[in-house]
Amino acid sequence: MTTKVELNASANASEQTQIPNPPPEHVAIIMDGNGRWAASHGKPRSEGHRAGTENLRRIIEAFIRHGVRYLTLFAFSTENWNRPDDEVQTLLELVDSVIRSEVNELHSEGIRLRHIGRIDRLPTDLRRSIRESIELTKDNTRLTLCVAFDYGGRAEIVDAVRSMIADDVQAEDVNEDLLRRYMYTNGIPDPDLVIRTSGEQRLSNFLLWQAAYAEYYSTSVYWPDFNEAEVDRALEAYSRRKRRFGKVR
Ligand code: FPP
Question: How far is the CA of 231 from the centre of ligand 1 (A)?
Answer without folding.
Answer: 18
